[in-house]
Write a structure and sequence with these properties.
single chain, 293 residues, mainly alpha
C-alpha cells in the first residue's frame, strides 16, 4: 500500500471519527442546555437540526483534521472494506432489520410487561429533553468503526453487532413486548425536545422493546472504544449508560429492557473476546480470519 493511499485511508477515518465525536458532544451539550438549564432556542426546529448536525460538528471536524494533518497516515486501517463497507452495511442491518421486524409483527400480539416487572418504571417521570441523549446512539454505533486501531477489534465488533441484533430480532418476532404511549407532550409545542421526540415516535413502532437494541448496540460500541482507547472508553461507557437512562425517561423502554440490552452486549463482548483468545475452539476458516490482526 502506498504512502498516498495510507494518507487517504487515514484521512477518511479520522474525518469520520471527528465528525461523529463532535456530533455526539454537541448533542450532549444540547441536552445539558435544554434538559438541565431549561434553555431553549426560539427558531425553526429544522434549522436547529441543521446547526446541531452540520454547522457545528463539521466546522470542528475541519479544524481537528487540519491539526492532525501530518499524522493522518497513522490512522489508516486495513483491510479498508472492513470499516468502509461493512460498517455502513451493518448500520443498515440494524435499522432495516428493526423496522422490518416491526412491520412483520402483528400489534395485537405485542404484550405489555406484567406489573411486577415494571413497578419501578412508575417512579420515572416523562422527560422529552432526554430524547437528545436517546438519538446519539446512531453516531455512537459508528464511532468505534472509525476509531479502532486493530482489525481484530473491528472484526469482533461487527460479528457482535450481527449476533446481538439477530438474537434481538428473533425475540421480537417470538415474544413481542410493547410500551403504551399514553402520555401527552408538554403544551409548549415549539419545544425543540418535544418536536424531536415527535419525530422519533413518528417512525418508531411502540413494540420491539425487550431487549433494547438501543442499549445493546450503545454498550457494545462503548466497550469496543474502550478496547482501543481507555480514556475515551470511559466517556463512551458513561454515554452508553446515559442512553439507557434516556430510553426510560422518554418512555421508549421499560427498565428491564435496558438491563436486558446491556446484559446482552456484555455477554456478547465477553464471549467474542474469549473466542479470539482461544481460537482452537472455532473452525479453521474462522481462525484464518481472526489471524488477520
Amino acid at each position: 500500500m502506498t504512502r498516498r493511499a495510507d494518507v487517504l485511508n487515514g484521512a477518511i477515518r479520522r474525518t469520520l471519527f471527528y465528525y461523529l465525536l463532535f456530533l455526539i458532544l454537541v448533542v450532549q451539550a444540547l441536552f445539558v442546555l435544554v434538559g438541565v438549564f431549561r434553555i431553549d432556542f426560539d427558531f425553526d426546529p429544522a434549522l436547529r437540526v441543521w446547526v446541531v448536525t452540520a454547522v457545528i460538528p463539521v466546522s470542528a471536524t475541519a479544524v481537528a483534521v487540519w491539526w492532525d494533518r501530518r499524522k493522518l497516515a497513522s490512522y489508516a486501517l486495513e483491510p479498508w472494506y472492513l470499516w468502509g463497507i461493512w460498517g455502513p452495511i451493518l448500520f443498515g442491518f440494524w435499522a432495516g432489520g428493526y423496522f422490518l421486524v416491526g412491520w412483520l409483527t402483528d400489534p395485537s400480539r405485542a404484550a405489555m410487561l406484567p406489573p411486577e416487572w415494571k413497578r419501578f418504571d412508575l417512579f420515572v417521570p416523562f422527560a422529552p429533553s432526554f430524547v437528545f441523549l436517546y438519538v446519539i446512539v446512531y453516531p455512537l454505533f459508528l464511532l468505534p468503526i472509525a476509531r479502532a486501531r486493530k482489525a481484530a477489534t473491528l472484526q469482533r465488533l461487527l460479528v457482535g453487532y450481527v449476533l446481538m441484533l439477530t438474537v434481538s430480532y428473533l425475540v421480537f418476532l417470538i415474544t413481542p413486548v410493547t410500551y403504551p404511549r399514553l402520555h401527552t407532550m408538554p403544551p409548549h409545542t415549539l419545544s425543540f425536545a418535544s418536536w424531536t421526540l415527535h419525530k422519533v415516535w413518528g417512525g418508531d413502532p411502540p413494540w420491539n422493546c425487550l431487549p433494547s437494541t438501543h442499549c445493546a448496540v450503545a454498550m457494545l460500541s462503548a466497550l469496543a472504544i474502550a478496547e482501543t482507547d481507555k480514556r475515551l472508553g470511559v466517556w463512551a461507557i458513561v454515554t452508553a449508560l446515559a442512553i439507557g437512562v434516556s430510553t426510560v425517561y422518554t418512555k421508549q423502554h421499560y427498565i428491564v429492557d435496558v438491563i436486558a440490552g446491556f446484559s446482552l452486549a456484555g455477554a456478547t463482548f465477553g464471549m467474542l473476546r474469549w473466542i479470539w483468545r482461544n481460537p482452537e475452539h472455532v473452525p479453521e476458516r474462522a481462525r484464518e480470519l481472526m489471524a488477520r490482526d
